Structures
1.
Amino acid sequence: MSGNLSFNDVTKKFGTTIALDSFSVHVNEGELVTLLGPSGCGKSTALRVAAGFEAPDIGDVRLGTNSVLGLPANKRGLGIVFQNYSLFPHLTVLENLEFGMRVRRVSKLRRSARVAELLDLVRLVGLAERFPHQLSGGQQQRVALARALAVEPQALLLDEPLSALDATVRLEVREEIRRIQRDSGIATLFVTHDQEEAMAISDQVCVMNSGKVEQVGAPKTIYRFPSTPFVARFVGRVNDLEVEILKPGVARLVGHAQEFTVPATSGIRGVARVLLRPEDVRIASQDDTGTLKGIVKTLHFGGATTAAEISVLGTDHVVRMSDSTRAINCEVGDNIEFVFDTERCLVTAATH
Amino acid sequence: MKPGRLAWWLVIWVVGLFYLIPMLSMTRFAFQRIPVIKLSFNNVFSKWTIEPLLTTFSDSGFRSSAMLSIWLAIATAVLTLLLLVPTMTIAHLRSPRMRRVIEISAVLPFVVPAIALVVGFAGAFRDTIPQLIRSPFGMVPLYVITALPFTHRTLENGLASLDLRTLIDASRSLGASWIRTVLFVIVPNMRASIATASFLALTVVLGEFTIASLLLKNTLPLYLAYAQGQNPQGSFAVGLVLVVLSAGFVTAANRFGKRVVS
């Protein structure tokens, strides 16, 4: 039986360190929510609090409508997949998958049927008699996922399950996790520090910093409309430009005369910073106004797309641009004109 | 042969012979029916017999002291595991500082002489719990302490080789109670180190003399010392059997460990 998982104003301290600070997140049934943030931001602590491995100082964790704080870890009915390979090394795949069901005294007949079902789900049919050390890292994590699902948990907690895998396998297991999660419709909390992983797998991303939620939203929203400088800088690459806000909606690079428009909503005046995605910088066409001149410093060919670093003429500013390889038709050392598409940029105070 | 390799072999041979010569001498003395002064290279293969061993085995004094030592060894191994496995597991999970305290405490028996241990033990419990002094099983805690440097190190290595936190969390999240987690997850994964620690405790008890002697308990080492006067050949024969058994225990534990790990 799957249900909602919600954190309500959870605060957790370790000594004087605040690991979670009024942390609130809601995971709906069938939804995959990712906690994304740098190391030490509290994302794993949140998961451990939900799992019952840590007790919060303040706040509540609910499964459906019921608080789970009074329940020990073994009574919470949550499935967990860990970062480190957590299969029991002395048990075969079959015995690992049966472990939770044996605890719940599920009949042998039902256990066998469920194990067959799970092995099929994670595409490991035929490996039931293997020991964990006889499996690859990707296979081990798939067994760990199957083991977590074996007990039909109310929600699934995934603590950086892909971080120990190499790049190709990681992609494969990531797709597998998403497929299984969608098929089972289980509320899933996924913890990662890898923004690309978070963007690719999630229904909702919760960006965390110093124990606090910075922004929660769909991956596209988080990327295109970051609500804080931290989110803009942490998720994807960003041009962090020092500007002068001349009047609401009008700015120029410090030390440069060319004016360009910025969102007028911030209310900031004077020296500020503009955070702008590389794909919001493009080579100017003849119709563009407010263009800037620069010299191409580096080009990074990435197949379909190319990234360029442009040194703005007459200043110390370096602007990063990313576009389709066809659009960036220049060489290192070329003089080019470019413009900023600033509708989605974030204007922030100079100190942020 | 390179000079380094030559030195290596030289050391191995010198140390090996240092152990081997007394063992071979002991074997000849125990199992050849030839007076010691007549033992020579010429009669290496003559008059071998296991009669001294059989004579000792048939002695009721031997049997009772051997049984006592075996029971004491088993009790020591059990108490060691009951004390150390949970304590060290908790220390690994909760408190690195506690681990260091345990580690230092575990090597203390190296510097505390057995006589000091017995005098302290007897002084503390003679009036408060006299049964502890009277019963031979009162020696078990002392044996646990004596074996501690070896047993602790073995179990510590076993624990350190596990990702204990993840295994426990995984087990708990699958619904297992703490007891089930310890019995079905931690202990099976520590089989090798538990077996080695048990065998080490066993060998320590089978060879310990001072404590039993000071507390006037008739354990196997005491019997052997006493029998040296009555039946020296038999006493040496049993001593040899004990050495072979101890070596067998340690080898078995190592093999067992390797099989489990692979």
2.
Amino acid sequence: MSTNMLLNKIVRPSRNFVKLGRQSKRLCSTHVERKKSSDNSNGLFTEEHQQLRDTLKKIIDKEINPYVDQWEQEGQFPAKKVFKTLGNAGLLGVTKPTEYGGLGLDYTYSVALAEELGNINCGGVPMAIGVQTDMSTPALAKFGSDKLKREFLAPSISGDFVSCIGVSEVGGGSDVASVKTTAVKKDGDYIINGGKMWITNGAQADWMCLLANTSEGPAHRNKSLICLPMNLPGITVAKKIDKMGMRCSDTAQIYFEDVRVPQDHVIGEEGMGFTYQMLQFQEERLYGAAATVQPLDNLITSTADYCRQRKVFGSPLLNNQTIHFRLAELSTEVECLRSLIYRSVGDYVSGQDMTRLASMCKLKAGRLAREVTDSCLQFWGGMGFTNEVLVSRFYRDFRLLSIGGGADEVMLSIICKYMNTLPKPPKQK
Amino acid sequence: MSGFRILVGCKRVIDYAVKVRVKPDKTGVVTEGVKHSMNPFDEIAVEEAVRMKEKKLASEIIAVSCGPQQCQETLRTALAMGVDRAIHVITEPKEYESMQPIHVSKILSKIATEEKADLVIVGKQAIDDDCNQTGQMTASLLDWPQATFASKIEKSNGDLSVMREIDGGLETIKVKVPAVLTSDLRLNEPRYATLPNIMKAKKKPLVTKKPSDYGVDITPRQEIVSVEDPPVRQAGQKVESVEELVTKLKEAGLV
């Protein structure tokens, strides 16, 4: 956490990930049975991890993938229903404390879960799940009061509540310190005014983990995280934003006008909001990167299959060296990313700081996702340009990876910080 | 009033979603590095047993799997679904290749007797060899009544009334307990093993036995001569009209 603090000071532009997407990465998945590339080749995973993945796979095959096309068309997936199914299977609180319905397991389980979520045939649903499990709830689980955890965390783990995280605003996403929304104390309550932008799950959420300014003063010490029920008077969900990808995930713009919430809804200590928010970033980034590898793998496999069947000038397209070599190259890159993720997870689980590696994972995942989807789409030719195939959906959905959850450039700044190559910010007087 | 003690069979098979490939030497199919899972019909059997326990009709459920070491993964899944304890009858992978329903039936009947089971429930068949023999032979060895292809099981007085899918429709029969049942596809829809239950399953007892512990000799009595892919379907052709079709059929000597 000390690193986080550093980051804040220097690179404040931490991604505020939240909103859209960080995790969006998962995307694709295609059909095609996959060889399990993750097996226990790394020592991180046990038989229980595999069983967890099997259960999730069954839910995906039965309750999610058959409906994804419809959800994409409708521009929203039924978060309540899907989350309840996942909550019943114990999948929404893997690393959360057992007192609130979680399982208290280590982070490797979260990563196994994230990887398997990559078998969902779109980026939107896994992203929404990630917001619930790894973005809007970690700070509450770590620093929230018992009362707050009972009221908001427990139902989010059981799948009865849908949550969202309110950090980004119209004026800034990656620059978390520039948040303008205020929460002013009055008669034992906070009165909240302002607005949030790019809020994933925003149109369906029961509560928001809100970052707001609770006092004047230095930007890194005047903010607090507040559990905000979304049904309070004064909250307006202005619109669902029309996006290029992640179409089945609702992304909202939200306004607050004199919204009144009790002061005991603040998570942990007042003024620590920025710090808490920074702390959650590591897990989120890693989670996001982990959710990217399976879809990319699936995409490469399905592209090879397609090219094997498609005949051009009398022979399968796949026989062109430029194609099979390129796919081999991409597959190699994906395995490199997977290894980096596992290494980061290993560090994290053993209690070491993984900020640097996690930032690299996030950066690489975003860039590689663009590279793989673009290359594969090319091999699908005209078909790749239609909405009939998954590759085009992933091409659109995964573009977000380099933007949401801390843009590539923010990741680069963090890495530079660790390399001691980042220029110092101008002194603020 | 204590409920039945139920024995369920859990065969580990190649996952239904995997495209099965024949080994180049034609001695069998490729199993290495291939995803395996519990035979889906056995999953239905486990689910039914668990539901009976939830309805207080059963007091204890014991799962049995015969085969190599990895069968324990299958048993853990059964334990995560709600089975109380498991028995793994371990064999060498090589021996397992030649293991037949008769061997498994002998083992199951021996365990049923030893454990004083009131009911044995197994899938109607396994999706790998499609034998559809184990339940029937187990009933015969135990000299118990059997109710195969069950699509509904209800307790009526001390007995069971079982609805079965037969060619002409549905048949309901009554069987006296102890009995052997085999599950059909529509008996129930198996639950997911939830993560909390997967973790709890780690702590449930699983004992390992050998076929010889039950006095069963699994020396092969048959030899696999060759395993072949099914013939590839020939490409068809389109015809413009019924007349053309009839002409073609006549040419081919089919009408």
3.
Amino acid sequence: MNLKKISLLRITVILFITYALTTGFTFYCAADDNKTFTVGFDAEFPPYGYKDESGEYVGFDLDLAEEVCERKGWILKKQPIDWNSKDMELKTGAIDCIWNGFTMNGREDKYTWTTPYVDNSQVVIVKKDSGIEDLSGLAGKTVAVQSDSSALAALTGDDATEENKNLAASFKELQQVGDYNSAFLNLESGAIDAICMDIGVANYEIKSRGNLFVMLDKHISSEEYGIGFLLGNTELRDEVQETLWEMLGDGTFLRIAEKWGLESSVCLSAEDSYIDNTSMENSQSLIERFLSISKQLMGGLGASLAIFFLTLLFSMPLGLLITAGRMSKLTPLRWIVKIYISILRGTPLMLQLLVVFFGPYFIFGINTPASYRFYAVIIGFTLNYAAYFAEIYRSGIQAVPKGQYEAADILGYSRKQRFFKIIFPQMVKNIIPSVTNEVITLVKDTSLAFAISYTEMFTLAKQVAAAETTIMPLFIAGIFYYIFNFVVAFVMEYIEKKLNYFR
Amino acid sequence: MSLLEINNIEKSFDNLQVLKDISLSVDQTEVISILGPSGSGKSTLLRCMAMLETIDGGDMSYCGEKAVTSVSGSPVYASKAQIKKIRGYFGLVFQNFNLFPHYSVIKNITDAPIHVQRRPKSEVYEEAYILLKKMGLEDKENYYPYQLSGGQQQRVAIARALSMKPKMLFFDEPTSALDPELTAEILKVLRSLADEKMTMIIVTHEIDFARSVSDRVIFMDGGIIVEEGSPKEVIDNPQNERTKAFLKKMSVNS
């Protein structure tokens, strides 16, 4: 009887799910009558595409896309993307095009392009009172560029001019950053001396940041923006292109440009023709690419290992100190430590890294040296992991039976002897499984150093993936992390076995 | 001289009074058994005497030295150094042995004499081997506690207590965690200690053992000493109704 009831229930549930799925599917198909057009853009790239004060995604490019969709009867979907993942987004069909102040120069062969619609130049931004007046003043300075940006290509890419290559060589360091907001935070705090970027974005940033910064007169290069489609997707490209020309003809295009103050930069022309790149092939073999990418990632692996080992070295003893405070008889100390642990465990590590790195300047007005970036990573990781270790230690200490303390007291051990001779060894055995978990997490967490633009393996993998338009570097990075953790798990298992001499 | 003298001890947990005005004096070489139903306060009394619990009233002295004095009704403990010294006068054997699991048998026995009493290693080890032999554990010196039976563990715990050369030994239900056949081996050890004139206070449920080994038997109930005297008086010829009821129950059970 009971069994029957259960199976009846089961059938009802299955039917319900089936119904939900089919109806959902029908809705989905119905929506397809109005084609969606998904535009991928970097949400931190004003005035082309960004988030305004009301939280809406706006910008010149998005306005253009909106107008195109209106004319074609499409539904526009604005999809902010991680710039480093743009090729994967495009290849998997998650987005239909990249429409976002997207530089054609140097990428001619990688996408199916519209004709150029904006002429942009690469310029250098410095702090107003920096004393840097021309490009030669950048010698020995730290200069930032966005990863895989046209500025980076203009300075170090295959097609860079000799002049620019020499200029880049004169820098103390060419720092790659993830987004322009963090680049400007870095510039303001003095962590970097200059930013190389697109003129349109530069003008906008300088104006909106209260004229704290100036632009050097001499430009590094000039370049053009186009709309990038998946290589070979000429059908969709043609539709968009035709509509753009139509908009140019009736003046809508120029009107939108004026709205965003870009009327002097636009260059769309009905006379231009497409780039022919349909026969491009990658000449390197798979194994060659695998090896060359692995080699590139090795450099980042060193940085990840450094973060890993230094964090363990400092956070494990610090955690013990924090546990002592957490279990102290002094109520105020206990509360301070409790709050510390609560904050460090309750906020993202990424945010803590940002606070440690930018805090000295934005809170105390202290200019930090360029080398501080690495120290900030270690300090941030150590503070965070010490909080976790402290709680693990505490659980391990509390799991030691009360009788052990009493036996030690009866035998006359001092408090210090009692802890280090009797309690500590038993605690270590108790916490090994939790510590293993934590250490394995740390291996993967090292990738969070990207938050303050410290280039470790994963950041490097994303950069390489973006530069070579393949996801292979990410796979290889995954293999490296796995091997790393395999070794970690092996070592921890060995320690656990060693401690099995007692129970 | 009495080795231990306690007067008017009071002890409460939260609002529950566990010990009410207990006084007791222990002479050298005396063997005292404390009997009583569970919850009677006998273990708490032993733990107070071993200074694992602090008392709320009364005074205590060991070998004529004051550990706790009563100042206008409230107890004042002696200086840390004095307490540390007094702790060396007694040892305690627990119900659950409480051996250090990460130390081998020999290290359990020798570590405190070497690192707490700072006695020479060679002397400590020599004595430890004699103790192990006495406990019938001479082949177990490198075993870890988990590799031993409960009875063997308790014998190691007794050896560990003896290695500190205490003037008296407290036993907190030393056989309660053991199977009956293992109980016998521990009682044999206690009997031989009594023969060697060791001063002992034993909280126990073993009535027959208490009768044969004790100089004095104390029956506790409800936080007070109900009856006290020789085994003949208290066990064979109890006067108090509560004592009679307890002994009757115990004899039915065994």
